From TrEMBL:
Cofactor: Mg(2+)
Listed InterPro entries: NDK-like_dom, NDK-like_dom_sf, Nucleoside_diP_kinase, Nucleoside_diP_kinase_AS
Organism for this UniProt entry: Basidiobolus meristosporus CBS 931.73
Keyword Isomerase assigned: no
Family: Belongs to the NDK family.
Keyword flag ATP-binding: yes
Residues that coordinate or bind ATP: 9, 57, 85, 91, 102, 112
Protein name: Nucleoside diphosphate kinase
CDD domains, A to Z: NDPk_I (cd04413)
One Pfam assignment: NDK
Keywords recorded for this protein, A-Z: ATP-binding, Kinase, Nucleotide-binding, Transferase
GO molecular function annotation: ATP binding; nucleoside diphosphate kinase activity
EC number annotated for this UniProt entry: 2.7.4.6
Length: 148
C-alpha cells in the first residue's frame, strides 16, 4: 500500500492544530503508520529540503522549520501521496480552497502549517529520513469498510 510523509510544521504545533490535521487524514480513511514529535536538526531539515537549497527563501524556511518541534507522520492508503496533498491544499495558502487544511487555517506561504510528500519516491525518501527506525505495520479491520 502507498505511503506518504505528512508533517505538522512548528506553527501548526504551536497553534494547537496537530489533532485537527491528524483528524483530516484519519476521517478520510487513511491509516496512521507512524507518529512522532521531534525538534529537527539543521542537518535533517537540509536533507529533507535538499531540492530547495538554492532558493532565495531557503534560509527563511530553515529558520521557520527549526523554530520549534514538528509532528511527523506516516499515512498509508490508496492514492495517499496525491490525495494527501489535496487535503493539505496549495503551497500558497491564499490559493488553497476552503475545506483544505491550508485553505482553512493559514495565510502566508512561509507559515503554511504542514508538509506532504510530492511523489511516491519522495515519500519513500522522507519516511526513511524521519523514521529511520521503521514504521508500524498492522492490519485494520475497518479497511473492509473503506476499500471495495
Ligand atoms: P510544498 O510544501 O507545497 O511541497 P515546496 O516543496 O515547493 O512546497 O516548498 C517547500 C516549502 O518551502 C513550502 O511549504 C513553503 C516554502 N516555500 C515554497 N515556496 C516558497 C516561496 N516562494 N516563498 C517562501 N517560502 C516558500
Ligand atoms: Mg514539497
Amino acid at each position: 500500500m502507498e505511503r506518504t510523509y505528512i508533517m505538522v510544521k512548528p506553527d501548526g504545533v504551536e497553534r494547537g492544530l496537530v489533532g485537527e490535521i491528524i483528524k483530516r487524514f484519519e476521517q478520510k480513511g487513511y491509516k496512521l503508520a507512524g507518529l512522532k514529535l521531534v525538534k529537527p536538526t539543521q542537518e535533517l531539515l537540509a536533507e529533507h529540503y535538499r531540492d530547495l537549497a538554492s532558493k532565495p527563501f531557503f534560509p527563511g524556511l530553515m529558520a521557520y522549520m527549526t523554530s520549534g518541534p514538528v509532528v511527523g507522520m506516516v499515512f498509508e492508503g490508496k492514492g495517499v501521496v496525491k490525495t494527501g496533498r489535496v487535503l493539505l491544499g496549495e503551497t500558497n495558502p491564499l490559493a488553497s480552497l476552503p475545506g483544505t487544511i491550508r485553505g482553512d487555517f493559514c495565510v502566508d506561504v512561509g507559515k503554511n502549517l504542514c508538509h506532504g510528500s510530492d511523489s511516491v519516491e519522495s515519500a519513500e525518501r522522507e519516511i526513511a529520513l524521519w523514521f529511520p527506525e521503521g514504521i508500524v505495520e498492522y492490519n485494520r479491520f475497518v479497511d473492509q469498510l473503506i476499500y471495495e
